[in-house]
User: Fold Class E sortase from Kitasatospora kazusensis.
Amino acid sequence: MEKVREAPARGRHRRSRVAALLGVVGELLITAGLVLALFVGYSLWWTDVVAEGRSGQAGDRLRQSWSAPARPGPPGPAAAAPPVYGAGDGVGFLHVPALGRGNQTLIRMGTDPAVLNEGVAGVYREPYRAAMPWDAQGNFALAAHRDGHGAKFHDLDRVGRGDAIVVETRDSWYVYRVDGTLPQTSKFDTGVIAPVPEGSPYQGPGRYVTLTTCTPVYTSRYRMAVWGSLVRVDAMDARRTPPPELR
Assistant:
């Protein structure tokens, strides 16, 4: 009879241990879920907050530098030479009305994470060195994050043919018109930022702008591109009056 009574007891102990183990596993899964949720919140929200603050401060410093008197340069043609920018330097501001009223993004040289994570649009320096807006021809190619770190190009898929893209520099407004888009391509497709972008409507050299970002949203699996061509250049007046496309 002792053995008969011991069997149910062992069964109860075994079930108790299994229940305890399942409880521990459940608690671990809940903890892992909370950690994952915090990580996602950090990636998609907190990095936006930090990047917005840093890009705002950097943009303010750039505008302040523009208001400072220019240093006298050497006499002759060299005095009118365009500026030369190094990695991380501020170039100007990108305005894309289709991304929202008052849309403005600081433009800096480079597309390394150290640059893009500051909530800016970065100018490609490789594999093709992007032409600058004032160059006689070439492709002013830019990249920005779609999610996190400012997510400046989160809604880039809303930009379509005929929309305006405006680049603001110290001395000029460069007004482009969107001529084509590429909803999805390989992240290794560097041709989209070539001097004459591959897959674009353009057949020869010109003065172009290209905006690139990741797609689909919340992934970095593919890339998308928006291409525009220069329509005109407006000189900057003392009040920095924006062109009609931004009013």
Strands lie at 90-95, 105-109, 121-123, 138-143, 164-168, 172-186, 207-215, 222-235.
